[in-house]
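seq:
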Amino acid sequence: MDFKPNYLNNPDNIEKDILTSKTMFCKDQFGNLYELKAVDQNLNTFQAEWNDLNLASHDHPHQTTSASVQDDGGEDDLSSHTSLDSGNWVHSLQKSCSNFFHKYKRETIWLVGILCIILYFIYFTFAIIYDFQLAIALIACTGVVLFCIGYSFVDSLFGDKLDKMFCSPIDRAISNNWHIIKWFLYPAIAIFGVLYLGLVVIREMKQVQPISGIFIFMLIVYLTSKHPNQIIWRPVLWGFSLQFIFAVFVLRWQFGYIAVKFLADQINIFIEYGYDGAAVVFGDPALLLHPFAMMVRHSFASDRLPLKSNPGMSMLLYLGAVMAILYYLGITQKAAVKLGWVLQKTMNTTAIETLNTAANIFLDGMDTMLMLRHYIDKLTLSEFNCFLVGNHATVAGFVFALFVLFGAPPQHLLSAAVMSAPATIAICKLNYPETEESQTKNLEDIELPKGEDVNIFEAAANGCNMAAKVVCSVLACYIAMMALLAFLNATLEWLGGRVGYPQLSFELICSYVMWPIAYVIGVDAPECKEAAKLIGIKIFATEVLAYQELGKSVARGSLSPRNQALTTYAMCGFSSISTLAIAIGVWNAICPQRVKLMASFMLRVLVEANISCFMTACVAEILTAAGHAVTLTPVKYMNMVEIWVNDRLVFTCNVLKLDFDGDGMLDCLCLNALDCVNSAF
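struct:
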């Protein structure tokens, strides 16, 4: 007779046999758990498992007792029981702490936060008592943080109520009556602007020169417009108005100028910490024979670094990690949303246009594309054009650090980035007006995700890796462009030599071709050729080479400080032919379905982005007074110097804080005097 398993004789016993088999196996393996139950009554997990096994194997005849197991290895079991007992105690403690934290999570966070605030304000008080002058930066940072915390607190508790009671009714009233309000608002803005320029700003005929430049550039944009009969003038007028307002805040208001100058100085000090990382890996960069990669000379000195130097390409790696951390924490996204809200309410632009333009003040173009990549396919042609121009008309992130590295004044780069943002939208809406229905009208419909990194450390590592690619790209591009430029100049020199003009070069051609642009933005006629050469190199070659040449011009004294600032504004954009060619590769990786469309927009983007920079330079020149008489007067019995401009006291400087290296004192005094001219007039 063939043996048949029990489950074949009676299918109802399948579950019972399987359970019995599993029970025997588990009891053979975990028999010692019975003793653990007696040792530690609080081990609920093992206790429940053992009870279940006992219930399942109650009638099983083959049962291994715990005594027999203990006889086989008593000493080993005793040590294992002791180890498991301590482990169980730690596990119970962890579980209790976890349960307590989850139960009182809100209260715990509040308690820790209040404790940290108390400790910080104790430190803050001692810092002010110790030295108020040294604590000014700490006071400013504390004020900004408290404002942000207070705003978030009020917004979370009363944001909806305030919006329903005040913001929404006012917004609806303005929207419903805008067709009437605009006939009073626009003339009022125009009259105020004319009176302000005529009575307060313009002190000499030279300041009229860039006004003609503004009208010339606007005429060029209008004549090349895609749909000149469908231009919506609200974003155009508001864009130029906001640019003017930002410029007044930065260049004419003393507090605004000091704030931007202070922020730029702190950014410069912050990025100089890349020196420490480079020094650990490569040794002291000042002693190396690779100045471009490790140590770059520029026009300002620092207490941390050798005189007039910067930590080279290592600075980009450091800043890449920092920007990635800020993006991971969502700080850049929040800043872009807040500024984007202002731009959208005034200019009535769509969400993606606004967010992209605002984000490009804080992020470079590639980071902005990654942040908004899910919405690129939904853009209309006008929005797509504005998106492209916004990515190339300002500088931020790596590009900001790169230009500072080559000697560009950081305060001018920072103010130019802010001023160019609204001008970019205005120029785009004038040159390519909207004719389609947008799918991204409201900011509320756009989600800006945080970084996909697990934690801050992964974000920093990924940001550094991305920056390493940028460094390699910059070095490779610089090598290639220098080689091509050398070949081009040799060819032009050979061709010129055939007709008796061997000094013919690419730079010389640019100095003549771009001379009118340099002149209409306000550069002095004797220095127009030098500024035009730099602008031409920036457009037709690369920004890297142009800003390095700017550093050389500053070192040679070929440009006055005022013309240095104007040239910086005019070149403040990542909008060269080579950059746009590289951007095609970036688009092919991020949004390949729109690569051909991007390539078809290249010429229009090149013109619009550079005109946006030129307009910023014109506005800066109008609002920056030149040619004022600066007098330095020592204060008796004090280490102070009074700076008088046109018989008006505008600044008092502590001599002990100036640079006494060689004739550095006079240079530093003159530099501070120039800053006072910009802020006081």
